[in-house]
Design a protein that fits this description.
Elements (H helix, E strand, L loop, with lengths): L1 E2 L3 E13 L2 E10 L13 H5 L14 E8 L5 E13 L2 H14 L1 H6 L4 E11 L4 H17 L5 H10 L1 E2 L6 E4 L7 E4 L12 H9 L1 H12 L3 E6 L2 H15 L7 E3 L16 E6 L12 E5 L4 E3 L13 H13 L2 H4 L14 H19 L7 E5 L5 E4 L1 H7 L6 H8 L1 H10 L3 E2 L3 H8 L1 H7 L3 H19 L15 H5 L12 H17 L10 E2 L20 H16 L3 H14 L3 H13 L6 E3 L1 H16 L9 H9 L2 E6 L2 E4 L13 H23 L3 H10 L9 H11 L5 H30 L8 H5 L14 H7 L18 H19 L4 H31 L19 E11 L18 E8 L2 E8 L9 E6 L3 E10 L6 E9 L3 E7 L5 H15 L8 H4 L17 H18 L1 H4 L9 H12 L17 H4 L2 H12 L1 H9 L16 E4 L15 E4 L4 H7 L10 E5 L6 E5 L4 H8 L10 H19 L2 H5 L6 H11 L2 H5 L1 H12 L30 H4 ...
Parallel strand pairs: 10-12, 10-13, 11-12, 19-20, 32-35, 33-34, 33-35
Antiparallel strand pairs: 1-7, 2-3, 2-6, 4-5, 5-6, 8-9, 13-14, 15-16, 17-18, 20-21, 22-23, 22-28, 23-24, 24-25, 26-27, 27-28, 29-30, 31-32, 36-37, 36-42, 37-38, 38-39, 40-41, 41-42
Helix pairs in contact: 4-5, 5-19, 6-7, 6-8, 6-11, 9-11, 9-17, 11-17, 20-21, 20-22, 21-23, 22-24, 25-28, 28-31, 28-32, 31-32, 35-39, 47-52, 50-51, 52-53, 52-56, 53-54, 53-56, 56-57
C-alpha cells in the first residue's frame, strides 16, 4: 500500500525577493510540515511550478496543469503535479514596484490597465505514484471549491487527499472521495514491473515518426544525450514517459528531467547522458550543444549532431521492426495500392495503439536478449544471490560480436541494472520473462512473416492493456469543475485563502494512527523459479557461422589428433596444413578442444617432443583466431588443457604447453579472466549443493520442470531451490552454507592466481615480452576499444596509480604480473564477498606464487634450450663453384613467397613456398637452400640464388610466418638478375648475427676497388679484405703493364696525366714533340716526316714492343683485317690506294683514354690532325671507322657528341664571317677535312670525279640511282620520319618534337616524289646563287654521310648545301631513363608482394616501365642506319658520350648487316670490339665498386642483349647461338664471376694487368677468367648454346619489325628454376645431376617405378627435364657409346656429319620428296624465316641410324625408286627393343619362278613396316613391305617348291595393293602369331 500523495503545497509569487528583475516563487504553505520518514520532501519545487520563470502579467491567464518529475538522492522519482492559476494584485505599493517590470512586459497594456496585475499561484501535489489524471482531478476540485465557493471546507478535502492510501499493484480497483461530493475510481496495474503509459507512446510516434523514435531509442540505450523541445510542458512529460516505456525491460538510470526550468538550463552541458525536456522558448540556448540529440516534438524532427554516431539495431531486426510498426500506425499503407481496398482499415484507438507499439518493442527485446539466462554466472547463492553476466559468450554464441549496438547495450548501465534485477533465479516473473523463456521458438519461426508477427503483437498488446485497465467497465467519475463563466470572467475574487494548518495536521495524524493499529495487509508476493528458456546453442542465427563442408574439416582435425597420439607422425605432418586451415572455422576449434580433452587423464598428458610440438602448434593456431574477448569460449576450453599437456625435459623437469602459447592477447584481458573465474566458481558451487543435498530436491525440481530424468540441473535452478529453502533453515545451517560458499570462492581465487602466473610469466623471464607490447599492465587499454563504461565499472578501483607500467620501466616482469593478479583478485573477491582476512592472505600469497613459478620456469628454460629443435629440417649445403668460398655459414631462414604466383601453388600444384632452410653468403653468391614447409612437397629441394654483385636493393621487412604465427624480422633482397629473396630469420638467429650478415653482404657487394670483386679474388683465401701478395704471379706481365703506363705518362708529359681540366698547349710549341708520336713503325702514314730518323728499336722499348704486338693481336685488328679496313705491315711504305689505315696514335692511350690502342682513320689524315680534332668531342672520342659494308663500301663511324663550342663551328656557313679566334676556326676546318676524307674514301664518291662540283653531284645523282636504290628510298624516308618524330609519329617512336624540317619557298617538293625520302626533306639554307631550281635539284641528291646526332646538341647549327654530309637529329634516351625504366621493369617481372589492384597488374606495370619503348627506339635507329648503309651512304653515330647509346646502335647495326657477327666467334668479337675496347663503362654502369655505388645500376648492355633477343625471335635461323647464350651473357655480365665485363676501358685493363694475362699460364685451370673461354669450353661439351635451326643465307641484311607490338617480353626476366637455382653456373648444376643419377641404382628392389615425372615450370629446369628432340638424341647417342665403351665423338662433329650427309643425300635423290625438301632449310627462301621449324634428315647416301642398334652401326641403301619413310624416322630410332615389335624366321616365296627362302623378318610398329634381312645378324635390310599398302592377311595353302614336312596351317598370305606375298612359318601356332601381330598393327593404324 502507498500514499496517493505525500505532500500538498501552495506556492506563490514572492513579492519581497526579486533578483535582477526576475521574480521568484516561495512556498506559502506545506502539509504535512514534517517530512515523512520514507519519502523526504524534495527541494526546489518552486522552480518547477513555473518552469519558464515567475512573472507578473497584466491579463489573467487560463489555469494550467503540468506534472514535473524530480529524482531524489536514492534515485527515487517524485511526481510533482502543479495546478497554476492567476490572482489579481492591486496593491498600490506594488504598482510602483512593478511599473518597470510592466514596461518590460508590454507597454501598451501597462498604459491601459496599470492598476491591475496578475501573479501566478500553484497548488502542488508531490507523490511517488504516477497518476496524472487523478492528480488533475484532485487539484481541479480544490480549485473549484475555492473559485466557486463550495460548501466543503478545503482543509477536509486536503486532509483526505493526504491520507488516501491505495495499493501499488495487483489489479485492484479503489474508489476514493475527498469529501466534496466527488468520486474517483483508481485502477492499479496488475504487475507494477510493467510501465504504465496511457497513450503517451502512440502520441510520441505520431509526433516524431517511426524512424526518428527508433533513433531516439537506440540513442537512449547506447547512452547518448537526448533533449526534447516543445511549447507544451505536458507533452514533454508524456514524450519522456513514452520513451521510457518502450525501453522496457531496460530501465533508464541516468539524469531524467522531463521538464527543466529555464533557470537550470546550464544542466544541459553536463558530461553524463540524460533525457531532458525543455520549452521551445529556450531553443536558442540549446543551439551550441554539440553532443546532444535534439527532438523537436512540435516540428517532428530529430537532429543528430555530426560528431554523434548512433549505433542502430542490427539487421534484419531493424527492418522487421519498422515493418511491423508501420502496419500498426498506418494500416492503410499495405492496401494503398489495392484496386478494391477493404471498407475500413482504421488504426486502433490511441490507447490500444499505444499498447500495440509497446508490444512490438517487447517482442524486439525478447529477440535481442533471447538466451541471456544461459550466460548468467551465479557466484554466490547465500546470503543473497550474486550474479554476473558473461558478455563474450552471449555475443559469441549469437554470432553478434561485430554488432556495435548490442556491444554498447550490454556494456551500458541499463543492462547492468537488468542483470541485477532479473538475474536472481527465484523471484516474481512478468510478461518479459515469459516471452524470453517460452515464446522464443515461436518468435523465430514467425520473424520473417509480418502478419504472424502482427498477431503475436496483438496478443501481447492485449496483455499490456489488461495490465493497465484490469476492469474495463469502470464506474463513472464524478468530479466538479468550475463553471464556464467563472473560468473566463475575471472576478475580483479574494486571493487563495490560507489553510488551517492544525486542522489538516489532525487529519493526517488521525489517519496514520489508524494505519498503525490496522493489521498489515500482506499480499503474498508470488515468487517462483525463473524459467531459462531454450539454451543458446540451439539458436543459430541465420548469419551464424555454420561453415560449409565443416563435417569434412572436423574429420581432418580428429584424424590428425588421433595420428599424433598414435605416434604416426608422418601422417600427422601431411594433415597439418589442412588442419591449420580448418582451424579458421569455429566448429573445428570447438572440435579440437573436445578431442584434446579426451586424451587428458587425471589432468595430465605427457607427450614426446614431436607430439608436444604439434599440439602446441595447433593450440597456437586456434588461439590466434580467437578474439581477445574469447566470444566462443575456445580459450576458456583450452585453459585447462594448456596446464595438462606437457613433456619431460630432464630429471624432474617438465615443460607444460602453457609456456608455448603465451603470445596471445586473450591472456592479458581482465574480462576474460573474470568470466573464466566466475564460470568455474559457479561449477564448484553447483557441485557443492549437488553433493550436499540428497536426491529429493532434484526430483522436486524435475517434477516442477516436467522434463524428466535426462536433464542436468543448471546452477540457476539449484540456486532458485536454495533460495526457496533459505527462510526455513536454522541460523547455524545458514552460517555454515555461507562459509562453505565463501571458502569455495577463496580456493578458486588461489587456483586462478596460479593459472594467471602460468600464462603471464614468459618462459624466459628476462624478456619482458608480453607485458611491454600488450595492455597487460594497463587494464584500461584492453584491446577492445568500446569497453569504455564496462571496464570503468569492472575495475574495483578505476584508474588507480598502477594502471600502466610506463612509470615502472625498471620493474621486472614479476612485479607487473603480481600487480595484474592482485588487481584481478581484489575485483573478483569484492564482488563475490570474500572476507577481508582471506583477501589479505591472498595478497601475501601472490608474490610467493609468482616467485616459485619463475624459479620453475628458469629450470625449464634452461633445459628447453638444450633440446635439439626437432621439427626443423637439417640444413642442406649448397654446391660451391671452384674457387667460391663461404663467407658466412648457413643461417636458418624462411623463404617467403613474393608477388610471383607460380611457386605458391595459387596457379595449381603444391605450394613450394614458403620454404624453410638456410641462407649462405659466399664470396660470389647469396644462396638459399631449403625445403618447402608444405609436407606434400617436403622432399623437394628449393634453391634460389643470385650473384652478390647483382644485388640492387636491400630493405628490412617484418614477416609473419603462417606456420608459427610469430612476426619475424626479415630482409627483402632484390637482384638485377631478376631475382627477389624475401627471407625471415628464424628465431634461433640472433638479431646481431643478422646485422653481421648485412654488413658482410654490403662489403662484398661494393668492394673498395674492382680488385675486390669475385673475378679477382677467386681462388684466394676467403678473407674479406683482399690483400695483393701475389707479386711472383705473372711477374713479366705486371711489370710490362706498369712500364707501359709509365712510358705513356712520360711521353705524354705532365699536363696530360694530372689534368683536372683539359687545356692543351699551343700547337707550335708541341710540333717537334708531336712528330715523335706521329711516327710509328707499325703503321706508317703517307706523310712520313722525312727528317725523322727514329727507328723502331729506339722508339719503343722491348717491354713496350711486346705490348704492341699484343695490341695487334687484339680482336679489333682481326676484325679490321677481315673487313679490309687496313692491314699491318712493318715496311715503311704502304699501297696508296687503300682509303683507310690503322693508326697507332692512341697506342699509349694519350689521345683518348677510353678508346682502344689501334684505330681506323682515313689514309689521308695525319695523326697530328687527330690530336687537334679530338678536342671537339666529348671525352676526346673523335670519329673512327668501326665497320665497312663489303658491298657498297659505305662505312660506319662512331664518336661521342660534340662539345657545345664545336657545334657552331662545325656547321657554320663558309660565307658568314666569324668572330671566332683562328685556333677554333682551324679546328673546325680540320673537322671538315676529316669528314671530307671519309666521304672521299667511298667508291661512289670517287666515281663522281671526287670534286665538289655541281656536275659531280648531277652525275652521281644520275649514276647511282640504279635499280637497287630505287627499291629503297621510300622506306628510308618513312624510317627517317619515324626516327626524327614527324607528324605521322607512330605511338612509342622517338621525339615528341615537330616536323624535322620542311622545304619552304617556291621549290616545295610534292609529297609523292620518291626521292624526297632519300634526301631527308632537309633543312633549307640560303643558297649562294639563290635559284630555286638548283636548290631543289641539289637537295634531291642523297648525302654521302649521315650524322646521327642528339637533338639537344644540334640546335642552332646551319646546314651548308655544298657539304656532302647531313645531320639526322634524334632524341636519345638518357641513362637516367634507362635506370628508372629498369627498376620498374624489375618490379613488374618480380613483384615483391601480391596485389589485387588492377593498376598494378603485370601488363600495366610493364607498360609503365617503358622498357619496351626504349627497346623500340634503339632498334628503330639501328634499322635506319642499316638501311642507309645498305643504300651506300656512310653513317656516323655521334650520340652522348659515345659509350652507351652509340655502342648499342653501332653493335646492332653490325649485327643486322653482317652475318659474321651472328656466329659465336663474330658475336664475341663484336662485344669485345664495340663494348670492351671502345670503353663502355661496365664498372660504373653496373655499380660494381663502392665509388660507383651512388650512380646506381644502369643496364645498357642488358638493353642491347634484349634487342638481340628480339631480332633472334624474328629471325631464328640466322643466328648460330641460341637464346640461352644471350641469357648466359645477361646473367654473367653482372655476376662478376669473370673478369671480362669488369673495368671501364682497355686502358684500365692494361693498368691492372688484366688485358693480356689470359694468354699467360694459369695456376688453377678450373677457374676461367674470361667468359668467352668458359663458353667455348662448355660449348665443346654440350650443345646448350647452339641453335639447331641455324641455316644462314649469305649476306642477308636483317630488317626486324621494331614497333612495340612486335616486341616480346624476354623470358629471361620471368623464368626461374627453384630446383637448382639459376642455370648459368654449370659446375653447381652438373654435380647435382651426378648425385641424382647415382642414388637410384642402389635401392632397385622396391618394385616397378612409374616412368611419369611431373614437370613444374617454376621448379624444374625445362631444358633438362624436357629436352628438345635433337639434344635428346645426342644425349642418347653419347650414353650408348659410353655403354659400349667407345670414345664418344664430340656432339658438334656428329651434328656436322649429319648435316653434310643430308646435303649430299638431297643432291643425290633424283626425285626429292616433298617432305625432305621442306625439311631441308636451304630450299627455304622465305624472306622472314621465323616459321621454319624443321627436323634435319640424316643419312649417308640416304639414311643414317643415329641411335644405333647395339652391335655396330652400318648404313643401307634404300629400295630403288621413291625414298623410304625410314629416312624420316632413322634419326629417332633408339634401342632395338623399342622398334622391333615382333621378329622371327619365315619362309618367303620369291617372285615368279624363284624358290622359297628363309629370311629374318622384323615387324616394326613404329615405322609401320615389315622388313626382312638375310639373317638375324645382318644389318643390311633386303626389302621392306609397307604396312600402309597391305590390304589383308589370311591363311594360305602350300604352293610349288614349299618347304617339306610342314603343317598346312603354317602357311599364310599377305595381300598388298601391288602383289600377294606367300609366307610359311615353322608351325601353325607360329603362323597364327604372325598373322595376329600383323593384323594388330593394321588395326592400330
Amino acid at each position: 500500500m502507498a500514499r496517493l500523495a505525500d505532500y500538498f503545497l501552495v506556492v506563490g509569487y514572492d513579492l519581497d525577493k526579486r533578483v535582477e528583475g526576475e521574480g521568484q516563487g516561495r512556498i506559502l504553505q506545506r502539509f504535512p510540515e514534517k517530512d515523512w520518514e520514507d519519502s523526504p520532501f524534495p527541494q526546489g519545487i518552486e522552480l518547477f511550478c513555473q518552469p519558464s520563470g515567475w512573472q507578473l502579467v497584466p491579463e489573467r491567464q487560463p489555469a494550467t496543469f503540468i506534472v514535473a518529475v524530480l529524482t531524489d538522492i536514492n534515485s527515487e522519482r517524485h511526481y510533482c503535479a502543479c495546478f497554476t492559476f492567476w490572482e489579481c494584485l492591486d496593491n498600490p505599493q506594488l504598482q510602483k514596484a512593478e511599473a518597470s517590470e510592466l514596461d518590460e512586459v508590454d507597454e501598451d497594456l501597462a498604459v491601459v490597465q496599470a492598476t491591475k496585475v496578475f501573479a501566478p499561484k500553484s497548488l502542488v501535489l508531490v507523490s511517488r505514484l504516477d497518476y496524472t489524471e487523478v492528480f488533475r482531478n484532485c487539484l481541479g476540485l480544490v480549485y473549484t471549491i475555492y473559485v466557486d465557493g463550495l460548501s466543503a471546507p478545503l482543509e477536509t478535502v486536503i486532509g483526505n487527499l493526504l491520507t488516501c492510501v491505495i495499493p501499488i499493484a495487483g489489479g485492484s480497483q479503489r474508489t476514493i472521495t475527498l469529501g466534496a461530493g466527488d468520486r474517483q475510481v483508481i485502477q492499479t496495474p496488475i504487475d507494477d514491473s510493467l510501465p504504465v503509459s496511457g497513450s503517451s507512446v502512440a502520441q510520441l510516434f505520431r509526433q516524431l515518426g517511426i524512424v526518428n523514435v527508433l533513433y531516439l531509442l537506440c540513442a537512449a540505450l547506447t547512452e547518448h544525450k537526448i533533449l526534447f523541445l516543445s511549447c507544451s510542458y505536458q507533452r514533454l512529460t508524456d514524450a519522456c514517459r513514452g520513451l521510457l516505456a518502450i525501453m522496457f525491460p531496460l530501465k533508464y538510470s541516468f539524469t531524467y528531467v522531463p521538464i527543466l526550468p529555464g533557470k537550470l538550463i546550464e544542466v544541459l552541458s553536463t558530461p553524463t547522458p540524460f533525457i531532458i525536456g525543455v520549452n521551445s522558448f529556450f531553443r536558442s540556448e540549446t543551439q551550441e550543444l554539440l553532443d546532444v540529440i535534439v527532438a523537436d516534438l512540435d516540428g517532428g524532427t530529430v537532429t543528430i549532431p555530426e560528431c554523434v554516431h548512433i549505433s542502430l539495431l542490427p539487421e534484419p531486426l531493424l527492418q522487421q521492426t519498422q515493418t511491423v510498426l508501420a502496419m500498426i500506425l498506418d494500416p492503410e499503407l499495405e492496401i494503398a495500392d489495392h484496386a478494391f481496398p477493404p471498407v475500413s482499415s482504421q488504426p486502433s484507438a490511441l490507447k490500444i495503439q499505444d499498447k500495440e507499439i509497446r508490444a512490438v518493442f517487447l517482442w524486439l527485446f525478447a529477440r535481442l536478449f533471447q538466451g541471456y539466462r544461459w550466460c548468467l554466472h551465479i557466484i554466490r547463492i547465500h546470503p543473497e544471490p550474486v550474479i554476473r553476466f558473461h558478455k563474450a559468450a552471449f555475443l559469441g554464441q549469437r554470432s553478434l560480436t561485430e554488432d556495435d549496438f548490442l556491444m554498447k547495450v550490454l556494456d551500458g548501465m541499463a543492462f547492468a541494472g537488468f542483470v541485477s534485477e532479473r538475474g536472481p533465479p527465484y523471484r516474481a516473473t512478468d510478461l518479459f520473462d515469459d516471452l524470453v523463456a517460452n515464446e522464443v521458438e515461436r518468435i523465430r519461426q514467425e520473424e520473417a512473416c509480418p502478419h504472424k508477427v502482427m498477431n503475436h503483437v496483438k496478443e501481447l498488446a492485449e496483455q499490456l492493456f489488461k495490465n493497465e485497465n484490469p476492469y474495463p467497465a469502470v464506474a463513472m467519475h464524478k468530479v466538479q469543475r468550475p463553471k464556464e463563466s467563472r473560468q473566463n470572467e475575471a472576478p475580483n475574487q479574494t486571493p487563495f485563502p490560507g489553510l488551517d494548518d492544525v486542522a489538516v495536521q489532525l487529519f493526517i495524524d488521525h489517519a496514520s494512527a489508524k494505519l498503525k493499529s490496522a493489521p498489515p495487509v500482506v499480499k503474498a508476493e508470488l515468487k517462483a523459479m525463473v524459467p531459462s528458456g531454450p539454451p543458446l546453442g540451439d539458436i543459430v542465427d541465420r548469419n551464424g557461422n555454420v561453415m560449409a563442408n565443416s563435417a569434412r574439416r572436423l574429420e581432418v582435425v580428429r584424424n590428425c589428433i588421433t595420428y599424433i597420439f598414435e605416434n604416426k607422425m608422418l601422417e600427422a605432418k601431411k594433415l597439418m596444413p589442412a588442419v591449420l586451415r580448418a582451424l579458421k572455422g569455429r566448429a573445428a576449434r570447438v572440435c579440437l578442444t573436445q578431442e584434446l580433452n579426451q586424451h587428458v587423464l587425471q589432468n595430465r598428458a605427457v607427450l614426446d617432443d614431436q607430439q608436444f610440438d604439434y599440439i602446441v602448434r595447433m593450440l597456437n593456431c586456434t588461439l590466434q583466431d580467437c578474439s581477445h574477448m574469447d566470444e566462443h569460449g575456445i580459450a576458456a576450453a583450452l585453459l585447462p588443457l594448456v596446464t595438462a599437456f606437457c613433456r619431460k625435459l630432464g630429471s624432474g623437469i617438465t615443460q607444460f604447453a602453457y609456456s608455448c602459447v603465451q603470445e596471445h592477447m586473450v591472456w592479458t584481458n581482465m574480462q576474460f579472466w573474470e568470466a573464466m573465474f566466475y564460470s568455474d566458481v559457479q561449477n564448484h558451487i553447483r557441485a557443492l549443493y549437488l553433493e550436499s543435498e540428497d536426491g529429493e530436491q532434484q526430483k522436486n525440481l524435475e517434477q516442477q520442470d516436467g522434463s524428466g530424468e535426462g536433464r542436468e540441473i543448471s546452477a540457476l535452478e539449484l540456486a532458485s531451490e536454495q533460495n526457496r529453502l533459505w527462510p526455513t533453515l536454522s541460523k547455524e545451517m545458514q552460517m555454515e552454507r555461507v562459509q562453505k560458499e565463501e571458502s569455495t570462492v577463496f580456493s578458486q581465487a588461489i587456483h586462478y592466481a596460479n593459472r594467471m602466473s602460468y600464462l603471464l610469466l614468459p618462459l624466459d623471464t628476462s624478456k619482458n615480452r608480453l607485458l611491454r607490447n600488450t595492455g597487460l599492465g594497463d587494464v584500461e587499454s584492453v584491446s577492445n576499444s568500446y569497453v569504455t563504461n564496462s571496464i570503468a565499472g569492472s575495475m574495483a578501483e578505476s584508474y588507480d596509480t598502477e594502471s600502466g607500467f610506463e612509470d615502472a620501466e625498471s620493474s621486472d616482469v614479476a612485479n607487473s604480473v603480481v600487480r595484474f593478479i592482485n588487481r584481478f583478485v581484489d575485483k573478483v573477491c569484492n564482488e563475490s564477498g570474500v572476507t577481508n582476512e582471506h583477501l589479505k592472505a591472498l595478497h601475501t600469497m601472490i608474490p610467493d606464487i609468482v616467485q616459485m613459478h619463475i624459479e620453475t620456469l628458469d629450470a625449464v628454460h634452461r633445459e628447453s634450450k638444450r633440446l635439439p629443435p626437432i621439427q626443423k629440417p637439417k640444413l642442406l649445403r649448397p654446391i660451391l663453384l671452384p674457387g667460391e668460398e663461404l663467407v658466412m655459414d648457413g643461417m636458418r631462414v624462411h623463404l617467403i613467397p613474393d608477388g610471383r604466383e607460380e611457386a605458391t601453388g595459387m596457379m595449381g600444384g603444391p605450394p613450394l613456398l614458403p620454404a624453410e632452410g638456410a641462407i649462405f653468403l659466399t664470396t660470389y653468391r647469396l644462396i638459399f637452400k631449403g625445403t618447402p614447409t608444405d609436407p606434400l612437397v617436403g622432399e623437394q629441394v628449393v634453391t634460389r640464388s643470385f650473384p652478390i654483385a647483382s644485388l640492387t636493393k636491400e630493405k628490412r621487412i617484418s614477416v609473419t610466418i603462417p606456420m608459427d604465427q610469430f612476426v619475424q624480422e626479415g630482409l627483402q633482397l632484390r637482384s638485377c638478375t631478376f631475382q627477389l629473396m624475401k627471407i625471415a630469420f628464424d628465431e634461433e638467429v640472433a638479431s646481431d648475427l643478422a646485422e653481421v650478415f648485412r654488413k658482410h653482404m654490403h662489403k662484398l657487394r661494393y668492394p673498395q676497388h674492382v680488385q675486390g670483386t669475385f673475378a679477382f679474388t677467386v681462388g684466394q683465401c676467403g678473407k674479406m679484405v683482399v690483400e695483393h701478395k701475389t707479386k711472383d704471379k705473372n711477374q713479366s706481365l705486371r711489370t710490362l703493364s706498369k712500364n707501359l703506363v709509365k712510358s705513356a705518362k712520360r711521353t705524354i708529359g705532365r699536363q696530360y696525366v694530372t689534368r683536372k681540366k683539359y687545356s692543351p698547349p699551343t700547337w707550335e710549341n708541341r710540333s717537334s714533340f708531336q712528330s715523335e708520336l706521329d711516327e710509328d713503325e707499325i703503321s706508317v702514314s703517307e706523310e712520313v716526316d722525312q727528317q725523322s730518323s727514329l727507328t723502331l728499336s729506339s722508339t719503343i722499348r722491348s717491354s713496350d714492343r711486346q705490348t704492341m704486338s699484343n695490341v695487334v693481336e687484339r680482336a679489333c685488328c682481326r676484325d679490321y683485317q677481315r673487313l679490309g679496313l687496313g692491314t699491318l705491315s712493318n715496311s715503311l711504305t704502304r699501297s696508296n690506294n687503300e682509303p683507310f689505315r690503322i693508326s697507332t696514335v692512341n697506342r699509349m692511350y694519350a689521345v683518348c683514354r677510353s678508346y682502344p690502342g689501334l684505330l681506323i682513320v682515313p689514309q689521308s689524315i695525319p695523326d697530328s690532325t687527330i690530336h687537334r680534332i679530338c678536342r671537339c668531342y666529348r671525352q676526346n672520342r673523335f670519329p673512327v671507322v668501326c665497320w665497312r659494308n663489303s658491298r657498297t663500301k659505305a662505312v660506319l663511324l662512331r664518336s661521342a657528341g660534340l662539345h657545345a663550342k664545336g657545334v657552331v663551328g662545325f656547321f657554320k656557313s663558309p660565307n658568314t664571317p666569324t668572330a671566332v679566334p683562328s685556333q677554333a676556326e682551324s679546328t673546325s676546318l680540320e673537322q671538315e677535312k676529316y669528314l671530307q676524307a671519309i666521304i672521299s674514301s667511298m667508291p661512289s664518291y670517287s666515281e663522281s670525279s671526287g670534286r665538289n662540283t655541281l656536275s659531280g653531284f648531277t652525275s652521281t645523282h644520275m649514276s647511282t640511282s640504279d635499280s637497287s636504290d630505287k627499291l629503297r628510298p621510300p622506306k628510308i624516308g618513312a624510317l627517317m620520319k619515324q626516327v626524327m618524330g614527324t607528324k605521322e609519329d607512330v605511338p612509342g617512336t622517338f621525339s615528341r618534337g615537330g616536323k624535322w624540317g620542311s622545304i619552304r619557298g617556291s621549290g616545295r617538293l610534292s609529297a609523292y616524289n620518291p626521292d624526297v625520302g632519300t634526301r631527308l626533306a632537309g633543312k633549307e639554307s640560303p643558297q649562294p646563287n639563290g635559284g630555286p631550281s638548283e636548290a631543289l635539284f641539289l637537295r634531291q641528291q642523297k648525302a654521302f654521310l649521315y650524322i646521327i646526332g642528339d637533338k639537344a646538341q644540334l640546335k642552332g647549327g646551319k646546314q651548308d648545301s655544298f657539304q656532302q654530309w647531313e645531320v639526322v637529329p634524334i632524341e636519345v634516351c638518357d641513362v637516367r631513363q634507362v635506370k628508372n625504366s629498369f627498376k620498374k621493369l624489375m618490379k613488374a617481372c618480380v613483384p615483391s608482394s601480391q596485389t589485387l589492384d588492377p593498376n598494378m597488374s603485370f601488363l600495366r606495370c610493364l607498360e609503365e616501365s617503358e622498357w619496351m619503348t626504349l627497346l623500340h627506339r634503339v632498334l628503330q635507329v639501328s634499322v635506319l642506319v642499316v638501311e642507309l648503309l645498305d643504300t651506300g651512304s656512310s653513317v656516323m653515330v655521334s650520340l652522348e658520350d659515345g659509350w652507351d647509346v652509340t655502342t648499342q646502335v653501332v653493335s646492332l647495326v653490325q649485327l643486322l648487316s653482317d652475318p659474321y657477327y651472328r656466329t659465336f666467334d663474330g658475336f664475341r668479337l663484336l662485344v669485345e670490339k664495340e663494348w670492351l675496347s671502345f670503353g663502355h663503362k661496365f664498372s660504373q654502369r653496373g655499380a660494381q665498386t663502392l665509388g660507383s655505388q651512388s650512380s646506381g645500376f644502369t643496364p645498357v648492355f642488358l638493353q642491347f642483349l634484349d634487342c638481340v633477343h628480339q631480332i633472334h625471335l624474328q629471325f631464328p635461323m640466322e643466328f648460330e647461338f641460341s637464346q640461352y647464350y644471350l641469357k648466359f651473357l645477361a646473367y654473367h655480365y653482372v655476376s662478376n664471376r669473370f673478369r671480362t665485363f669488369l673495368l671501364d676501358s682497355d686502358y684500365e685493363r692494361i693498368e691492372l694487368g688484366v688485358l693480356y694475362e689470359e694468354k699467360g699460364e694459369r695456376k688453377s685451370p678450373q677457374v676461367c677468367k674470361s667468359v668467352w673461354d668458359y663458353i667455348d669450353r662448355l660449348n665443346k661439351k654440350t650443345p646448350i648454346f647452339f641453335n639447331y635451326m641455324y641455316c644462314p643465307e649469305d649476306y642477308e641484311v636483317l630488317r626486324p619489325y621494331t614497333y612495340t607490338s612486335n616486341l616480346k617480353v624476354w623470358d629471361y626476366y620471368m623464368e626461374e628454376t627453384l630446383s637448382e637455382g639459376p642455370s648459368y653456373d654449370w659446375e653447381a648444376r652438373g654435380r647435382q645431376e651426378r648425385v641424382a643419377e647415382e642414388t637410384p641404382e642402389k635401392p632397385d628392389t622396391s618394385g616397378p617405378k612409374s616412368q611419369r615425372h611431373i614437370v613444374w615450370p617454376c621448379y624444374d629446369s625445362l631444358s633438362k627435364t624436357v629436352p628438345d628432340a635433337i639434344t635428346k638424341l645426342l644425349q642418347d647417342l653419347q650414353s650408348l657409346e659410353a655403354e659400349l665403351g667407345q670414345t664418344s665423338e664430340k656432339w658438334k662433329d656428329t651434328w656436322d656429319k649429319i648435316k653434310t650427309t643430308q646435303r649430299a643425300e638431297i643432291k643425290l635423290e633424283s626425285k626429292p620428296s616433298f617432305t625432305s625438301s621442306l625439311l631441308m632449310s636451304s630450299n627455304l627462301s622465305h624472306q622472314r624465316r621465323s616459321q621454319g621449324v624443321y627436323l634435319q634428315e640424316s643419312g649417308v647416301g640416304s639414311s643414317i641410324n643415329l641411335a644405333l642398334d647395339c652391335e655396330a652401326s652400318a648404313t643401307s641403301t634404300p629400295v630403288a625408286g621413291r625414298p623410304s619413310t625410314s629416312t624420316l624416322y632413322s634419326q629417332f630410332q633408339s634401342t632395338e627393343s623399342e622398334n622391333r615389335s615382333f621378329e622371327g624366321i619365315l619362309y618367303k616365296k620369291g617372285a615368279l619362278l624363284k624358290p622359297w627362302k628363309p629370311r629374318w623378318f622384323v615387324l616394326d610398329k613404329t615405322k609401320h613396316q615389315l622388313r626382312y634381312y638375310e639373317s638375324r645378324q645382318d644389318k643390311e635390310c633386303k626389302g621392306v613391305i609397307e604396312l600402309a599398302d597391305v590390304e589383308s592377311v589370311m591363311p594360305g595353302t602350300p604352293t610349288m617348291g614349299a618347304p617339306k614336312n610342314i603343317d598346312e596351317k603354317a602357311f599364310f598370305d599377305l595381300k598388298t595393293t601391288k602383289r600377294v606375298y606367300n609366307f610359311c612359318a615353322q608351325d601353325s601356332a607360329n603362323a597364327q602369331l604372325w598373322m595376329d601381330s600383323v593384323q594388330s598393327c593394321l588395326s592400330d593404324a
